[in-house]
């Protein structure tokens, strides 16, 4: 006779639902992960886009554009006040001229080619020495040719130069009292031009009024000045100048590492895009 307590009971202790267990154990996808992925992608895009100018130079022609002799620029500008040198931005060029207005930093020597507003940046021979080693070596500051320059390199417009060259612009502006057009708005430029124009007219009249009839006739003084004469004065002494910087011996092929780094960042960005897509799919399934 079987007692009530001996009635067999079905044992479910060894069975489980895998889907329910997985659901119970799963954690909601972290929101921090996609935020980090998007931040990494954005940073990579920003870095590569900031190298656009360098990448464009790498893919430009390795044949230098001959700009000729910089001393001819002033002659042509005097003949035609509207003439401007055809200087391409961010290209490999060659140029020659007479260095003037020299200066230097810890790593580079700078000069302006006479007759133009092309500045030359040449690496110092002792650039890798610390100040004490440089002093002991007794490097001659005048080693470079002080009478004539002939070279090639990358030329960039002052308006598009990196911010690290702000100090160079400020130095030449303060030292030689010649502002660069990139530092002036159109309104400010017109204001300065009008002020200088009024000053020229007043000076001409003052000189005429102060002179005797004999001095006026001898020196050819006139009470007024023509617009053509004023324009000629501005051609020789412009309100501001459009300047360029020549980075000597910098060839397009020297920027190969910008391309290599961009490819690396591109692959890293693509990897994070794939991870982000996977995260989105996982989130949608859950």
- Span from first to last CA? 54 Å
The average pLDDT is 82
Strand order of the largest sheet: 1-2-6-7-5-4-3
Number of helices: 10
Based on CA atoms alone, the radius of gyration comes out at 35 Å
Helix content: 40-55%
Based on DSSP secondary structure assignment, what is the total number of beta strands?
A: 7
The helix/strand class is: alpha/beta
Beta fraction of the residues? 15-25%
Low-confidence stretches: none
What can you see in these coordinates?
By secondary structure, the chain is of the alpha/beta class. It is 47% helix and 15% strand. It has ten helices and seven strands. The protein has helices at residues 18-25, 32-50, 52-58, 71-79, 131-137, 166-176, 186-210, 213-219, 227-236, 256-285; strands spanning 65-69, 91-97, 99-104, 108-113, 118-123, 149-157, 244-248. It has a seven-stranded mixed β-sheet. A hairpin with a 3-residue loop joins strand 3 (99-104) and strand 4 (108-113). Helix 2 packs antiparallel against helix 10 (256-285). It is elongated, with a radius of gyration of 35 Å. The model has no long low-confidence stretch (mean pLDDT 82).
Helix and strand topology:
Blueprint: H1 18-25, H2 32-50, H3 52-58, E1 65-69, H4 71-79, E2 91-97, E3 99-104, E4 108-113, E5 118-123, H5 131-137, E6 149-157, H6 166-176, H7 186-210, H8 213-219, H9 227-236, E7 244-248, H10 256-285
Parallel strand pairs: 1-2, 5-7
Antiparallel strand pairs: 2-6, 3-4, 4-5, 6-7
Helix pairs in contact: 2-10
Short description:
The protein has 286 residues and is of the alpha/beta class. The protein has 10 helices and 7 strands. A hairpin with a 3-residue loop joins strand 3 (99-104) and strand 4 (108-113).
């Amino acid at each position: 006779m079987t007692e009530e307590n001996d009635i067999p009971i079905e044992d479910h202790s060894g069975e489980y639902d895998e889907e329910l267990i997985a659901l119970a154990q799963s954690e909601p996808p972290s929101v921090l992960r996609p935020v980090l992925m998007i931040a990494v992608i954005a940073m990579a895009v920003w870095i590569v886009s900031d190298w656009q100018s360098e990448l464009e130079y790498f893919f430009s022609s390795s044949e230098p554009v001959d700009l000729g002799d910089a001393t001819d620029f002033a002659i042509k500008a005097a003949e035609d006040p509207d003439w401007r040198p055809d200087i391409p931005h961010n290209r490999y060029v060659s140029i020659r001229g007479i260095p003037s207005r020299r200066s230097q930093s810890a790593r580079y020597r700078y000069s302006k080619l006479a007759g133009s507003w092309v500045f030359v940046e040449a690496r110092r021979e002792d650039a890798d020495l610390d100040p004490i080693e440089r002093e002991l070596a007794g490097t001659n500051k005048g080693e470079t040719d002080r009478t004539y320059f002939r070279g090639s390199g990358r030329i960039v417009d002052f308006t598009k130069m990196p911010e690290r060259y702000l100090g160079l612009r400020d130095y030449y502006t303060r030292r030689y009292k010649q502002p660069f057009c990139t530092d002036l708005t159109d309104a400010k430029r017109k204001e300065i031009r009008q002020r200088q124009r009024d000053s020229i007219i007043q000076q001409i009249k003052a000189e005429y009024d102060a002179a005797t009839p004999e001095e006026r006739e001898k020196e050819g003084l006139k009470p007024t000045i023509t617009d053509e004469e004023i324009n000629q004065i501005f051609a020789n002494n412009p309100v501001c100048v459009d300047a360029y910087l020549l980075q000597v011996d910098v060839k397009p092929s020297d920027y190969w590492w910008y391309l290599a780094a961009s490819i690396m960042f591109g692959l890293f960005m693509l990897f994070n895009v794939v991870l982000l897509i996977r995260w989105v799919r996982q989130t949608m399934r859950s």
